């Protein structure tokens, strides 16, 4: 996925720790609000995506920029955000950078507020065209790449 001139793929490194209950605890060094667990490593990493999306909702609600992921250490597992969620994160972060509120974005797009709320909901399956249009109103271009 391209945003402006740079390639963006959000792969967040995670820490996996075996806890006293013989289950795995997952934490994100870059997103301390995201914490998850699982009975084994696979389940823990699967649950970690849900925890990360929940944390993204917190950042959006609190109007805070989501930090970009740090580089994982060698062999460190990562959780990769789906492309649609990445585009929503980029949209929300750009709105914050430019000081554009949801009401202003709705006005620019000539849509009602619930439509903008859905664009900024990481769990809603928005149409990519709608996110692309929102980014264009902010002077940004979204394009997709397959690697």
UniProtKB/TrEMBL annotation:
SUPFAM superfamilies found in the cross-reference section: TTHA1013/TTHA0281-like (SSF143100)
Matches recorded under InterPro entries: HicB-like (IPR031807), TTHA1013/TTHA0281-like (IPR035069)
Residue ranges annotated for the HicB-like antitoxin of toxin-antitoxin system domain, each copy included: 12-71
Record-given protein name: HicB-like antitoxin of toxin-antitoxin system domain-containing protein
The organism's place on the tree of life at top rank: Bacteria
């Amino acid at each position: 996925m391209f945003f402006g001139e740079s390639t963006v793929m959000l792969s967040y490194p995670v820490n996996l720790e075996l806890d006293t209950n013989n289950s795995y605890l997952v934490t994100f060094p870059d997103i301390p609000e995201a914490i998850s667990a699982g009975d084994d490593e696979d389940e823990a990493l699967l649950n970690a995506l849900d925890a990360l999306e929940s944390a993204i909702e917190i950042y959006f609600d609190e109007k805070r920029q989501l930090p970009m992921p740090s580089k994982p250490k060698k062999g460190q597992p990562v959780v990769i955000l789906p492309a649609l969620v990445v585009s929503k994160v980029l949209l929300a972060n750009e709105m914050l950078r430019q000081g554009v509120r949801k009401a202003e974005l709705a006005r620019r797009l000539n849509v009602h507020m619930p439509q903008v709320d859905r664009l900024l909901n990481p769990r809603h399956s928005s149409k990519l065209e709608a996110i692309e249009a929102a980014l264009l109103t902010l002077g940004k271009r979204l394009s997709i790449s397959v690697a």
